[in-house]
Amino acid sequence: MNNWLLTGFFFGMFLLFMIAFALIAFVKNAEGRRKSDVFERLFGKRASRHRLNLLYQKSYVQFQRLPLLRKYIWKIRKRLEVLDSFDEYAIRRQTMHIAFITLSSTAILVLLFCLISRDVFTIFFILFGAVVLNGVMITTFVNRVEDRMLKQSITLFEDTRHQFQRTRNVEEAIYEASLTAPHEAARHGERIYEILTADDQHKALDIYYEVAPNKYYKMFTGFSFLVSEFGDRIVRNSSMYLSAIAKLIQDVNYEILRRERLNYLLKGLSTIAVLSVLFVKPIELWAKTYFPVMSDFYSSKLGFFIKVFFFLVVLLCYELIKKLLANDEARYVAKSERLLWEKLLYTKIPLLRWIVDRFVPAPHKKAHFQLMVLIKEANSYLTLEWLYVQRLLLSGIILIGTVFMFFYMHSLSIQHVLHDPLRGTGIFGKLGPDELVVAQKNTDFDRSVLVMLRETAEVSPSSLIPLVSTLTETSSNDATMIFTANRIYQKYVDIQNEYFKWWELLVCLLLACAAFHIPLWLLYFQKKIRYMEMQDEVDQFHTIISILAQFERMDVETVLEWMERYSVIFKDPIKNCLNNYSSGQEEALEILGEEVAFEPFVRVVEKLRLSVEKIPLLQAFDDLELTKEYYAEKRKEHFSRLIERKAFWGRIFGLAPSMYLIFLYLVVPMIYLSMTQAGASFEQIRNVQ
């Protein structure tokens, strides 16, 4: 019957294909070009794109009505809004395109693996991997949009440069360049043209700064505005505006090259770290098949503990890789929001707020100041209170989880003693068919005796002999009877020892204490990663200052405003400096130099201090043009070292779960159990001799 159905299905598909082919031939040949145009409108690529776009727009509206899906697509939309906030339909289309691909891919993978394995623990690993993989896929698609925007910006900037050479008019050059630029870049070019021709240019400029896709568009818009307002100048036999665009294009090319190098070296490492959870069950099945003695290890407490700890290793490595890449690939993404469950627990439970207040250091203490500095240096969205909310909640979750884990491990050991057949001395612990039947019969008999002993106060081998003799109807002096009684007594002792011990509570407290410090360690790691990028941001400051210094009547406050606008790492110190600038220029710059202990940045601040009253800005930074080749080589060397360091740490974190799984879950237990069994075999041979 199934064969007939399959044959009918293929015959029907073939028939539909032939009908479609005949329809196409009929339209093209018999009806002529007009009918062909009608067919194209109905079934062509343009019609397909229109129907797909209509599906995306309707799906977006439907997804907004469901709470979970609404939050999911809003998470994607927030990252896309940074890149293009002018076209609402385009944002919805891209959002749903990414959502459909990620959700469908994740659902298919989860269904396939759940059909392959029905184990609850394995399904839990699969669901965890699916959630993480979904986040990786979203980041990948958003990064593609970011990369496309950067590459299109080069086309817009180069065309603007070419048109300015022809027209010597900034507004007209940007307008002409927007006509031939790719779609996303063209929309920003049109918006920049509207800003330069607006009645209130300053207000329109401030609005665009809030929605610009990246800092390069901000710089391009700002330089274009300055040249449009104050005019262009010839500096060193070259147009000041053309030189500014050339430097901007060089910075964009540098950013594209850095992204490509990082993607080439680090792409897929987070996926590798997460997908390693899918190999837990296959490795376990392979080891049980070819080395049956490993079954005892995987069903033991130690095997379960190693498996759970492997889950924590995967989670930690994924988080570290995400932080390693976040400073490059998601640099301009809006800061993360606090988790919903954190908000609910902290706002709905007054006791938790009271406990957090007891843990947070007082403002006059040194620890309070050190933690505040650490949060700023790590560029974290957290406040001190929310940092301790995370630390306390994570510590409490680990404490409760480990306590339940130990109770489950004891229950697992009891089930192992009661139900698993005894292992013989076969090859690698493998029992033959007859031996397996005997072992299972012995296990069932032992379990029935142990059930009878639950209400017995005192149990000893001597008290078990009469009971076993009665049940088996054999003599109490029989050697086999004595061996059976001792075996049952050993199982009884093993079951009685399976209770929650004091040292297990100590282990739970130590793990909870370690979990309490994990958010703090992540901040230190993020600070270390950001410290690697400080030099890159200082190099970008050099580019901005070298361009701004060419304008007449350029002052230090304006330079600081531009630096604060495009800064990420030094944004807060520069903002504080601007707030204090009116009360004392040199004092504000001196505090800025003391607040940031990074020598290249301090050198920039010292030159700005000289430019306040003593020498012009162009003279203070004249070495940027005189030694630009040196700075270019120095920047290239720093770029190579930064990539190498991130690639080194990325490979470690990406491959750590796989190495843990191979060695601690397979190789080391296999070697240990093989050596133990070999020793037992030699002992039996010696006893026989």
UniProtKB/TrEMBL annotation:
Q: Which organism is it from?
A: Paenibacillus medicaginis
Q: What is this protein called?
A: Type II secretion system protein GspF domain-containing protein
Keyword Membrane attached = yes
TM annotation in the entry: 6-27, 98-116, 122-142, 264-283, 303-321, 392-409, 502-525, 648-672
What does the UniProt keyword field contain? Membrane, Transmembrane, Transmembrane helix
Out of the domains of life, which is the source? Bacteria
